[in-house]
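Help: read this over?
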Amino acid sequence: MDTEKKSPKIRQVAFHKLRLTQKKKITANTFTLDFEIPDALKPAFRFEAGQYVTIKYPSGGEIYHNDFSMTSAPHEERISLGIKINREDSSTKDLFEAFQPGDLLDVSEPRGRFTLVSKPHEFRTIIGFAGGIGITPLLSHFKNILHLEPRTRLFLFYGNKSKQEVPFKEEIDALHEKYADRFEVHYFYSREKVGNAFLEGRLDEKKVELIINQLMMIDDTDEESTLWDSVDEVLICGKGEMIKNLANACYNNGIPKKNIHFELFEEYNDDIYPVEKEFPLIEDITLDFKLFNKEYSAQLKNNKVKLLQQLLIDGYPVPYSCKSGICGSCECMLEEGEVELLENEYLTEKEEASGKILACMSVAMSKKIKLNFDLI
């Protein structure tokens, strides 16, 4: 996750002062930050592969809360982040230039659900798709799996514009060299000719078909199936449109949705999977909600737009990041009324049964709805 936002849009989280031990520029517009975790804070900073932290820092007279996925694996016992400078006026440019090793920064406790259950005694095949700085949580996952799961095979398909713009290539190649029997990596370039048409162009649904039919055909461990048939989990991280294309391509080629996990590193407003349901029109909806200890009441014209998106259009300061059911920022409790909760990557069945919903994936199904964003 690599999202940039000022403080009003996010929930309150616990921050601690961590000392910056190293910063390093790894491409023209990406860099790393490493933080030391003192013994007293180690319980607070225990994390799972695929999680992220928030850094709070000033830029341009504003206080920013930026979410960054960790590239470090839990066994490394440090917080390592990969960060992209998207524009000259990006706050991350100030983050890179203003802070030096030895400085203290406000870092939140780890969170996020782009995680996998470790299965060290099983034979598994896991594939990852990443675009640009979206490699960060996948790097954490792959290091963790290679460390803990001796029977798991990993395949990484990693897209960038050119060879010069590949973050963490040295680290990925070192992992491949160390675990060559279990870890296979393929780089794709959208704006550079590399003499192999298969490796040129964006990672999209057409590339998935080629990967299935050209790279993942023969399975040496099972003559009756292909490598694609043996895929247990899919991890995807990148821009929203890439995630949408790849997730649907994997699903349409037989991977169950529950085994396709994704993480955005930018705001995205579309649904990842097509909405297959039609809803009866409900008009003149009253939506009462509690947020940051304040009570609000909104009047919604109808239910053609999901709850979060309608509240944002009307200017309410509801927390969000992705708007696609992935990040959980808009998690809340449904206290009154009915909603249809569309597919989401965040809530568990138990949480849904308790009344929790994601406002970004909820369609109003009654004329009166009451939500509480402060129970989380």
Summary: Residues 2-108 form a domain with the Elongation Factor Tu (Ef-tu); domain 3 fold (CATH 2.40.30.10). The first strand starts at residue 2 and ends at 3. The chain has three domains: 2-108, 124-264, 283-372.
